[in-house]
Amino acid sequence: MDILDKILRGVNHCFFATGLIGSLYLAGLYTSQKISQNNSPKIENQAYIEKILEKERKRAGIKENIKINAFLNNEGAAYSQKIGKEEYKIILPYKDSNLSDLRHELYHIADGHFNGGETKSSIRYALEYLFWQEPQATIYQSTGLKL
Ligand SMILES: [Zn+2]
Q1: Which tens digit of pLDDT belongs to each residue from 14-45?
Q2: Can you name the residues that pair with 67 across neighbouring β-strands?
Q3: Of 3, 61, 85, 135, which residue is 20 to 30 A from 31 by alpha carbon distance?
């Protein structure tokens, strides 16, 4: 009984530590994105996207043959999506978007984060996204560094 109690306490500490580290990690990622967004020029209309998209996609290293459609709309968060073999769309929320968000989404496209997803398990896909792709895109949006 005493040993089982000790094991259960150990397991509880382990879950607690994992949960705490995971929470701190996510909070750190979120805070890094927010700091970067606060120091970045606002994207207030579609004309501004058209004006900066060409320069920004070149900066991210996206090949000429890849088509990118970027739009402002009423969705709550920025995201990007592969919509064809060499075509992507980027959605930026109308209320609160900036250059930093656009760079973040362009990095996901430039680094091929949408490629090969069909062959990965959903757990592997989620882990790669959370611990590799999302930090990479966050570093790029904050510093311009490509890892
Ligand atoms: Zn992302």
Answers
A1: 888 888 888 999 999 999 998 988 889 999 99
A2: 87
A3: 61
Interval 65-83 mean pLDDT:
94
How many angstroms does the Cα of residue 8 sit away from the middle of ligand 1?
37
Report the C-alpha gap between 100 and 87 in whole angstroms. 21
Q: Between vectors from CA 23 to CA 102 and to CA 123, what angle results, nearest 5°?
A: 75
Per-residue pLDDT tens over the stretch 120-144: 788 888 899 999 999 999 999 999 9
Q: How far is the CA of 15 from the centre of ligand 1 (A)?
A: 27
CA of 18 to the centre of ligand 1 (A): 23
Give the per-residue pLDDT at 119: 79
Question: How remote is the C-alpha of 134 from its chain's centroid?
Answer: 4
Task: State the pLDDT at residue 10.
Answer: 80
The confidence band for 1, taking pLDDT boundaries of 50, 70 and 90, is low
Q: Which residue has the tokens 């250059």?
A: 99
- Cα 105 to middle of ligand 1, angstroms: 6
Q: Which of 106, 67, 114 is nearest to 88 (CA)?
A: 67
Domain boundaries, the chain: 2-143
Q: Give the distance (Å) from ligand 1 centre to CA of residue 104.
A: 6
